[in-house]
Amino acid sequence: MTDVRMTGAGLRVYSNIGRQSSAIKHQQSAIAYLCGMSEEIYKGHISFVNYEKHFATIDYVKNGKARSVNCKTLDADGKKRHHFRMGDNVQFQLRLSDRGDKMTAHNVKFLYNTQLEVLLNKAMVENRFAGFLKKVDDEWLIKEHGSYIFFPLRLSRWEKPPAEQALNEVISFSIQNLDKPNQLVAELFSHDFIPEYRKAQQLYKDKKPVEATVVRVSPYAAYLEILEGKIQSKINLKEGQGEMKEGDKLEVVITYLSPQRIVVEKAGD
Protein backbone atom coordinates (compact mmCIF):
# COMPACT_ATOMS: atom_id res chain seq x y z
CA MET A 1 0.00 0.00 0.00
CA THR A 2 1.27 3.54 -0.83
CA ASP A 3 0.39 7.06 0.25
CA VAL A 4 0.49 9.80 -2.43
CA ARG A 5 0.67 13.39 -1.13
CA MET A 6 0.89 16.80 -2.82
CA THR A 7 3.83 18.86 -1.59
CA GLY A 8 5.36 22.12 -2.70
CA ALA A 9 7.77 20.16 -4.88
CA GLY A 10 5.01 18.15 -6.49
CA LEU A 11 3.77 14.65 -5.87
CA ARG A 12 5.57 12.49 -3.35
CA VAL A 13 4.90 8.77 -2.77
CA TYR A 14 5.21 7.29 0.74
CA SER A 15 5.33 3.61 1.55
CA ASN A 16 3.03 2.58 4.43
CA ILE A 17 4.35 -0.93 4.69
CA GLY A 18 7.38 -0.10 6.83
CA ARG A 19 5.38 2.26 9.05
CA GLN A 20 2.62 -0.31 9.58
CA SER A 21 5.13 -3.04 10.45
CA SER A 22 6.87 -0.77 12.93
CA ALA A 23 3.56 0.30 14.47
CA ILE A 24 2.47 -3.31 14.91
CA LYS A 25 5.73 -4.16 16.63
CA HIS A 26 5.38 -1.20 19.00
CA GLN A 27 1.77 -2.18 19.66
CA GLN A 28 2.76 -5.77 20.46
CA SER A 29 5.53 -4.60 22.78
CA ALA A 30 3.15 -2.26 24.57
CA ILE A 31 0.56 -5.00 25.04
CA ALA A 32 3.19 -7.41 26.34
CA TYR A 33 4.49 -4.73 28.73
CA LEU A 34 1.03 -3.83 30.02
CA CYS A 35 -0.14 -7.43 30.39
CA GLY A 36 3.07 -8.83 31.79
CA MET A 37 3.38 -11.23 28.85
CA SER A 38 7.11 -10.75 28.18
CA GLU A 39 8.88 -14.08 27.85
CA GLU A 40 12.39 -12.65 28.19
CA ILE A 41 14.31 -14.38 31.00
CA TYR A 42 16.75 -12.40 33.13
CA LYS A 43 19.39 -13.53 35.59
CA GLY A 44 20.48 -11.78 38.76
CA HIS A 45 21.19 -12.22 42.44
CA ILE A 46 19.20 -11.45 45.58
CA SER A 47 20.73 -8.50 47.42
CA PHE A 48 18.11 -8.03 50.14
CA VAL A 49 15.35 -10.08 51.78
CA ASN A 50 12.60 -8.70 54.01
CA TYR A 51 11.28 -11.76 55.84
CA GLU A 52 8.64 -9.75 57.71
CA LYS A 53 7.03 -8.30 54.57
CA HIS A 54 7.78 -11.33 52.38
CA PHE A 55 9.66 -9.68 49.53
CA ALA A 56 13.19 -9.69 48.14
CA THR A 57 15.26 -7.39 45.92
CA ILE A 58 17.03 -8.76 42.85
CA ASP A 59 20.00 -6.95 41.29
CA TYR A 60 20.52 -7.57 37.58
CA VAL A 61 21.93 -5.99 34.43
CA LYS A 62 19.83 -4.93 31.42
CA ASN A 63 21.28 -3.28 28.32
CA GLY A 64 24.55 -2.78 30.16
CA LYS A 65 22.92 -0.91 33.05
CA ALA A 66 22.66 -2.10 36.66
CA ARG A 67 19.05 -2.39 37.76
CA SER A 68 17.07 -3.78 40.68
CA VAL A 69 13.55 -5.15 41.02
CA ASN A 70 11.48 -6.57 43.85
CA CYS A 71 9.72 -9.92 43.98
CA LYS A 72 7.33 -11.60 46.37
CA THR A 73 8.70 -14.52 48.38
CA LEU A 74 5.25 -16.04 48.88
CA ASP A 75 3.00 -17.45 46.19
CA ALA A 76 -0.52 -16.13 45.64
CA ASP A 77 -1.84 -18.89 47.90
CA GLY A 78 0.47 -17.74 50.72
CA LYS A 79 2.80 -20.72 50.43
CA LYS A 80 6.57 -20.49 50.28
CA ARG A 81 8.00 -22.60 47.43
CA HIS A 82 11.60 -21.72 48.22
CA HIS A 83 13.31 -20.05 51.16
CA PHE A 84 15.15 -17.24 49.37
CA ARG A 85 18.39 -15.97 50.89
CA MET A 86 20.81 -13.13 50.22
CA GLY A 87 23.30 -14.22 47.59
CA ASP A 88 20.87 -16.51 45.77
CA ASN A 89 21.48 -16.46 42.02
CA VAL A 90 18.09 -16.58 40.31
CA GLN A 91 16.38 -16.34 36.95
CA PHE A 92 13.13 -14.46 36.50
CA GLN A 93 10.76 -12.60 34.20
CA LEU A 94 9.36 -9.09 34.47
CA ARG A 95 5.79 -7.85 34.56
CA LEU A 96 3.81 -4.93 35.96
CA SER A 97 3.03 -5.01 39.66
CA ASP A 98 -0.53 -5.55 40.85
CA ARG A 99 -0.94 -1.78 41.19
CA GLY A 100 0.41 -1.24 37.67
CA ASP A 101 2.88 1.46 38.71
CA LYS A 102 6.21 -0.40 38.43
CA MET A 103 7.84 -3.56 37.20
CA THR A 104 8.15 -6.61 39.44
CA ALA A 105 9.87 -9.98 39.08
CA HIS A 106 7.83 -13.15 38.76
CA ASN A 107 8.50 -16.82 37.97
CA VAL A 108 11.61 -16.44 40.13
CA LYS A 109 13.65 -19.65 40.14
CA PHE A 110 16.60 -20.41 42.40
CA LEU A 111 19.79 -21.37 40.56
CA TYR A 112 22.59 -21.52 43.13
CA ASN A 113 24.15 -19.73 46.10
CA THR A 114 27.93 -19.96 46.37
CA GLN A 115 28.03 -18.88 50.01
CA LEU A 116 25.37 -21.44 50.92
CA GLU A 117 27.32 -24.17 49.13
CA VAL A 118 30.36 -23.33 51.28
CA LEU A 119 28.28 -23.82 54.45
CA LEU A 120 26.80 -27.09 53.19
CA ASN A 121 30.25 -28.44 52.32
CA LYS A 122 31.39 -27.55 55.83
CA ALA A 123 28.33 -29.27 57.30
CA MET A 124 29.34 -32.51 55.58
CA VAL A 125 32.55 -32.47 57.65
CA GLU A 126 31.53 -30.71 60.87
CA ASN A 127 27.85 -29.83 61.20
CA ARG A 128 28.08 -27.22 63.92
CA PHE A 129 27.58 -23.50 63.36
CA ALA A 130 27.11 -20.33 65.40
CA GLY A 131 24.35 -17.83 64.71
CA PHE A 132 21.66 -15.47 65.95
CA LEU A 133 17.93 -16.03 66.29
CA LYS A 134 15.34 -13.86 64.53
CA LYS A 135 11.58 -14.10 64.98
CA VAL A 136 9.29 -13.35 62.04
CA ASP A 137 5.56 -13.56 62.78
CA ASP A 138 5.27 -16.93 64.52
CA GLU A 139 8.36 -18.47 62.91
CA TRP A 140 11.97 -18.57 64.04
CA LEU A 141 14.99 -18.07 61.78
CA ILE A 142 18.69 -18.44 62.45
CA LYS A 143 21.27 -16.18 60.76
CA GLU A 144 24.63 -17.88 60.35
CA HIS A 145 27.26 -15.83 62.22
CA GLY A 146 29.70 -15.28 59.36
CA SER A 147 27.23 -14.54 56.58
CA TYR A 148 23.75 -13.24 55.77
CA ILE A 149 22.43 -16.75 55.24
CA PHE A 150 19.18 -17.43 57.15
CA PHE A 151 17.75 -20.88 57.89
CA PRO A 152 14.24 -21.66 59.20
CA LEU A 153 14.52 -23.08 62.72
CA ARG A 154 12.85 -26.47 63.14
CA LEU A 155 11.56 -27.01 66.66
CA SER A 156 10.28 -30.29 68.02
CA ARG A 157 6.62 -30.36 69.05
CA TRP A 158 7.97 -31.43 72.46
CA GLU A 159 10.50 -28.60 72.67
CA LYS A 160 10.01 -25.26 74.40
CA PRO A 161 10.50 -22.28 72.04
CA PRO A 162 13.53 -20.04 72.62
CA ALA A 163 13.20 -17.31 75.22
CA GLU A 164 13.03 -13.69 74.01
CA GLN A 165 16.41 -12.90 75.62
CA ALA A 166 18.01 -15.55 73.39
CA LEU A 167 17.59 -13.15 70.44
CA ASN A 168 20.77 -11.32 71.47
CA GLU A 169 22.85 -14.40 72.23
CA VAL A 170 25.06 -16.51 70.00
CA ILE A 171 23.66 -20.03 69.73
CA SER A 172 24.93 -23.27 68.22
CA PHE A 173 22.95 -25.08 65.54
CA SER A 174 23.23 -27.74 62.87
CA ILE A 175 21.86 -27.78 59.31
CA GLN A 176 19.39 -30.58 58.58
CA ASN A 177 18.06 -32.09 55.33
CA LEU A 178 21.43 -31.71 53.60
CA ASP A 179 20.20 -34.02 50.82
CA LYS A 180 17.18 -31.77 50.17
CA PRO A 181 18.43 -28.27 49.23
CA ASN A 182 14.91 -26.82 49.07
CA GLN A 183 14.08 -28.05 52.59
CA LEU A 184 17.14 -26.94 54.56
CA VAL A 185 16.40 -26.18 58.21
CA ALA A 186 18.39 -25.38 61.33
CA GLU A 187 18.18 -27.39 64.53
CA LEU A 188 19.43 -26.25 67.92
CA PHE A 189 22.27 -28.12 69.58
CA SER A 190 20.82 -27.49 73.04
CA HIS A 191 17.16 -28.51 73.28
CA ASP A 192 14.83 -27.45 76.06
CA PHE A 193 12.43 -30.40 75.99
CA ILE A 194 9.31 -30.68 78.12
CA PRO A 195 9.64 -33.07 81.12
CA GLU A 196 7.40 -35.70 79.50
CA TYR A 197 9.75 -36.00 76.53
CA ARG A 198 12.68 -36.50 78.89
CA LYS A 199 10.69 -39.26 80.55
CA ALA A 200 9.94 -40.81 77.16
CA GLN A 201 13.68 -40.81 76.44
CA GLN A 202 14.26 -42.82 79.61
CA LEU A 203 11.43 -45.25 78.79
CA TYR A 204 12.93 -45.77 75.34
CA LYS A 205 16.37 -46.39 76.81
CA ASP A 206 15.02 -48.87 79.40
CA LYS A 207 12.56 -50.46 76.92
CA LYS A 208 9.82 -50.18 79.55
CA PRO A 209 6.11 -50.28 78.61
CA VAL A 210 3.88 -47.30 79.28
CA GLU A 211 0.09 -46.84 79.23
CA ALA A 212 -1.40 -45.14 76.17
CA THR A 213 -4.89 -43.84 75.47
CA VAL A 214 -6.59 -44.08 72.08
CA VAL A 215 -7.79 -40.61 71.05
CA ARG A 216 -8.73 -41.29 67.43
CA VAL A 217 -9.15 -44.28 65.15
CA SER A 218 -8.88 -44.42 61.35
CA PRO A 219 -9.31 -47.47 59.12
CA TYR A 220 -5.57 -48.08 59.25
CA ALA A 221 -4.22 -46.66 62.51
CA ALA A 222 -5.03 -45.83 66.12
CA TYR A 223 -3.72 -42.46 67.33
CA LEU A 224 -2.42 -42.45 70.88
CA GLU A 225 -1.47 -40.14 73.70
CA ILE A 226 0.91 -41.14 76.48
CA LEU A 227 2.39 -39.49 79.57
CA GLU A 228 -0.65 -37.37 80.47
CA GLY A 229 -1.42 -36.60 76.84
CA LYS A 230 1.81 -34.71 76.24
CA ILE A 231 3.37 -37.32 73.91
CA GLN A 232 1.61 -38.35 70.68
CA SER A 233 2.13 -41.40 68.51
CA LYS A 234 0.15 -44.03 66.60
CA ILE A 235 0.08 -47.75 65.89
CA ASN A 236 -0.89 -49.35 62.63
CA LEU A 237 -3.93 -51.59 62.83
CA LYS A 238 -3.29 -55.15 61.72
CA GLU A 239 -5.85 -57.57 60.40
CA GLY A 240 -7.20 -59.76 63.17
CA GLN A 241 -5.87 -57.43 65.89
CA GLY A 242 -9.34 -56.62 67.13
CA GLU A 243 -11.25 -53.37 67.11
CA MET A 244 -10.07 -50.27 68.93
CA LYS A 245 -12.18 -47.31 69.91
CA GLU A 246 -11.63 -43.88 71.38
CA GLY A 247 -10.85 -44.06 75.10
CA ASP A 248 -9.31 -47.56 75.03
CA LYS A 249 -6.18 -48.09 77.15
CA LEU A 250 -3.24 -50.25 76.15
CA GLU A 251 0.40 -50.83 77.04
CA VAL A 252 2.95 -49.74 74.43
CA VAL A 253 6.73 -49.78 74.08
CA ILE A 254 8.66 -46.95 72.42
CA THR A 255 10.69 -48.47 69.57
CA TYR A 256 12.02 -45.25 67.99
CA LEU A 257 12.49 -41.77 69.39
CA SER A 258 13.75 -38.52 67.83
CA PRO A 259 12.89 -34.84 68.35
CA GLN A 260 10.51 -35.07 65.37
CA ARG A 261 8.95 -38.52 65.69
CA ILE A 262 8.11 -41.21 68.26
CA VAL A 263 7.21 -44.73 67.17
CA VAL A 264 5.50 -47.23 69.48
CA GLU A 265 4.17 -50.76 69.25
CA LYS A 266 1.80 -52.70 71.42
CA ALA A 267 3.62 -54.31 74.34
CA GLY A 268 4.01 -58.05 73.86
CA ASP A 269 3.73 -57.95 70.04
Measured between the Cα atoms of the first and last residue, the distance is 91 Å
Task: Tell me which oligomeric state these chains represent.
Answer: single chain
Stated plainly, the CATH topology of the largest domain is called: OB fold (Dihydrolipoamide Acetyltransferase, E2P)
Number of helices: 3
Residue share in β-strands: 35-45%
Q: Which spans of ≥5 residues are poorly predicted at pLDDT below 50?
A: 1-9, 23-31
Across the major sheet, the strand order is 5-4-3-6-7
Q: Give a quick account of the main beta sheet: strands, pairing sense, barrel closure.
A: 5 strands, antiparallel
Helix/strand order, N-terminal first: EEHEEEEEHEEEEEHEEEEE
- Mean pLDDT, as a whole number? 85
Structure description:
The chain is α+β, with helices and mostly antiparallel strands. It contains 3 helices and 17 strands. The protein has helices spanning 16-35, 114-125, 195-206, and strands spanning 2-7, 10-15, 42-50, 55-62, 65-72, 89-96, 103-112, 129-136, 139-144, 150-152, 171-176, 185-188, 210-217, 221-226, 231-236, 249-257, 262-266. It has a 5-stranded antiparallel β-sheet with strand order 5-4-3-6-7. The model is unreliable at 1-9 and 23-31 (pLDDT under 50).
Overview in brief:
It is built from 3 helices and 17 strands. The chain has 269 residues and is of the alpha+beta class.
Write the layout of secondary structure elements.
Blueprint: E1 2-7, E2 10-15, H1 16-35, E3 42-50, E4 55-62, E5 65-72, E6 89-96, E7 103-112, H2 114-125, E8 129-136, E9 139-144, E10 150-152, E11 171-176, E12 185-188, H3 195-206, E13 210-217, E14 221-226, E15 231-236, E16 249-257, E17 262-266
